[in-house]
Structures are given as structure tokens and as C-alpha cells.
Amino acid sequence: MMPAARDSLLDAAYMALTRRPWSGVRMVDVAAVAGVSRQTLYNEFGSKEGLARALVRREADAYLAGVDRALASHVEPWERLAAVAEWTVAAVRGNALVRAVLTGCWSERLPSLRLSAVPSSSAVAAQRRADGPLPSPTDVVGLVRDRAVAALTVPGSSGAEALELARACEVAVRLALSCAVVPAGKGGAGELVREALGSVVSVSRA
User: Fold this and answer.
1) Which of 193, 64, 190, 72 is nearest to 135 (CA)?
2) 78 near 175, Cβ under 8 Å?
3) What is the DSSP letter of 117?
4) What is the pTM of this model?
5) 3-state secondary structure 18-72
6) Are 67 and 147 in contact (CB under 8 A)?
7) Would you call 201 exposed, middle or buried from its count of C-beta atoms within 10 A (0-12, 13-18, 19+)?
8) What is the residue-level pLDDT of the chain in tens, covering all 206 positions?
9) What is the distance, to the nearest Å, from the Cα of residue 10 to the centroid of all Cα atoms in its chain?
10) d(Cα 62, Cα 3) in Å, to the nearest integer?
11) Distance CA 175, CA 193 (A)
């Protein structure tokens, strides 16, 4: 199945999840919305759990792609970190699966999944990846931190500067998550990141 067709199935599953708890989502209904047979759906994802894992993996990947866009959206490093913070808050508030991946809080409406890998005999490469380990909140924070560090590192930086930058980037992500759970005041998450980390010299040099 082409990636676009797989995405259409995941879109149908996501829309179903916005309307009812995952326990009430039926494979036959997802297939019908996507315009394919139920067998096609099973051939692609293996099971309802496989579909859920693929959906979670896609939403996590989409969040990280948004982080990359945020980091590329400005030149000034503080604005880049602020953009990541603002994107994180928007993503968590707008997508229940992203919220669960980033906070570890899985409501009863969502799929009940273990983060460890599950046995997979799928011939579909994307499904084998989905059947592998799913990211924990700590994993995602680390991935965002590492992306930010790669984008903001100044060639020739010392080890101490690199360490300080890594800490600043992780703090920015964690501040954003706190703002997603408890809304920040005027200026939002981006302004909070600017105020909290503006004195870190190594980042301001980037």
C-alpha cells in the first residue's frame, strides 16, 4: 500500500478517535470511512493494536517534524526556542495523542498501549517500525533537546558551552510542557522561555 493510502487509513482512525473512545472504534468503520475493505486494513496494520501503534507513531513523528519547522522559522536562537515552546503547547492542547506521548497521561479514551516493542511479522516496513518501541515522555524530551542543540550549536563551541546549551534546550522543552498543562500568563510559553533562559550566554551566541 502506498504511504498516502496508509495515511488515509490513519486519518480515518484519528477522526474516529475524536468522536468516541478507542474501545468503541471498530476496524470495519475505519475501513469504510477510508473506502477499503476490512481485510485491507488488517493486511496493513495486522490488528487494532497495530493500528493504534501506527497512529501514535505518526502523531509523535508529526510533532517532531513541527519542532524542526519551528527551529527553522527564525534566526535568533531565543526566537527559535520560543517557537519550539509555542509549537509544543499548541500540539499538546490540540492533539490528545501528542499530549499522552509527551506527558505520559493516557486517558481511558485513548488506546492502552505498552511502550515496549511487540512481536511483529508485518511485511510493511512502516508497521514494523510502529511495532517497535514507542517513545516515552523522556525519550521525546531528549529528541527535541537534541534537535535544538544541533540547530543552535556554534562551530567551535567548548565542551562547557555545549553542555550549557543542552541544558538550556531541555529546560525550554520542559517549560513548554508545564505551560501546556498549566497555561502561562501573558506572552505564553514563548515569552516564559525568553525570560527564563535569556541569560545563558552560549545560546545567545548561536
Assistant:
1) 64
2) no
3) -
4) 0.91
5) HHCCHHHCCHHHHHHHHCCCHHHHHHHHCCHHHHHHHHHHHHHHHHHHHHHHHHC
6) yes
7) exposed
8) 778 889 999 999 999 999 999 999 999 999 999 999 999 999 999 999 999 999 999 999 999 999 999 999 988 888 899 999 999 999 999 999 999 999 999 999 999 999 999 999 899 999 999 999 999 999 999 999 999 999 998 888 888 888 888 998 999 999 999 998 888 777 788 888 877 776 553 444 44
9) 16
10) 14
11) 7
3: cell is 504511504
**∠ CA 129-88-193, rounded to 5°:** 135
Spatial distance between the Cα atoms of 25 and 10, rounded to a whole number of angstroms: 12
Cell for 192? 516564559
